[in-house]
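Predict both folds.
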Amino acid sequence: MQVRKKDGENISSLLYRFSKKIQQSGILKEAKKRRFYKRSQNRNKLRLAAKYRAEKVKETERAKKLGLL
């Protein structure tokens, strides 16, 4: 992205125009999205993780009912 200073323009208005152009172009949004790389997992692994979490929730609720927690 390139912004050139106009005649008689102060630095703050130049920075304002620059930041406005960056936001409109979507570069900032894309950079924030790519900031952390997340490796894709296979569906079976995701299902097993969800099943494990559900079992843990049931265990803790059961323990609370029994007064163990």
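Second protein follows, with its predicted structure tokens after the sequence.
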Amino acid sequence: MAETFYQRLSALDATFLDVENPTAPMHVGAALLFDAKPLTLAHGGLDIERLTRYTKSAVDSIPRYRQRLEWVPGFRHPVWIDDDRFNMNFHLRHTRLPLPGDERSLKRLVGRLFSQHLDRSRPLWEFWVVEGVENDTFALIVKVHHCMVDGVAGVQLLEALLQIMPEAKEREPLDWKPRPAPSRAELLRCELRHRADGLRKLTHFMPRVRENFRGVANVLRSGMKPAPRTPFTERDISPYRRFDWTSFSLDDVKMVKNALGGTINDVVVAATTGAVRRFLLRRNANVDQMKGFRTLLPVNMRKMGGPSVGNHIAMLLADLPVSEQDPVERLKEVIRLTTQLKKESNQTGGAELIEEVADLTTKRLVSDLYLAAMQLRTYNLVITNVPGPPIPLYMLGARMKAIYPMVPLMRHQNLGIAIFSYSGALHWGFNADWESFPDVHEFVDDLEASFAEYKALASAPIPEVSASAKASAHT
């Protein structure tokens, strides 16, 4: 008899199932734009059969995409088992934009697709192939539940789907057979054993608890402090989404970094802070006196050679300096804040410790913190920045032109911002609540204006020092 298979979700992975509700689906995603010509058939449509066969072969390298959720009886802890009714045609879907297939129509479609929950009785992902996009383009809309991947694991999905050479050889799908699932009694026995072992292992955590006590305290203190009420927060959002995007040249971002200081991520956060300030000023908010406008910054905790699925992130909270009028001083303050978060407050170590203890005992240690933070509305905005490949990638010879990522909204959020670097550009995706944040396009305009201000400052010539000034400097 074949050995049964299951894999337990980590506490953090399971938390993304717990915090999901009817108005806040917890899938991550992206809109990928491709050159359609290499995959266009004589009748003008895409070669969907070839795309389906290719996607099947890509999924062969990521077993999680053929697994579904099961629940431990009594404890309701989720586990992964192989889906014995896996059907690629359910997950790879096909649609077409109405003429003229412009960018606005595509963004509206992406927003509608991101509004829809994934079916929990099946593997938690969908790909939508969208034909009829203007300029000989097709789109691939990707939706994957956050309990399966974080941003870095999403990059590894792209590695399975995309290639660095346009003429790369196609792989034939393998003959896959699901492994038998454990019985409910077996799941219960294994969960009881896991928790008993976890309690014994807790004694080994005491030195780390003492070492990271300050970090744990900072996580709890930051996570329980309400953020100010702004147009970026809502008591309960609608179930419908708007999606928008923009792109910046990575060379321009590096120019700002080199001229004004900080890292690429610091420039991203500072430009976003400037956009928030512009957006609030137009709404007559008292921005100059605003303190504690807080952003959630996911930080990658995945170790080299670690697992390619699941979440390995720490959620850090930082107060953005939206009251600072001067853009250079604003960037300096962002650099100070991010340095403090990474080196002084030890929030990452504290968050990692809480998650490890929850893995050994109960996921409620993490999920209850998330639910309490949602209730208190402890942050105004999410900004996640994922490094991607610096070179062009291809799918069946079709070059990927751009990729616009999506971060899900918690039920109190109106806007989430995700950034992905690819082939010399930073691609920004803006996921917004349809009803309470209808002017997401204005925020995108504010971001572009904020970054243009930094570009102008970075490229401004250094003023020459006059001879008399030089002489006085030496006296």
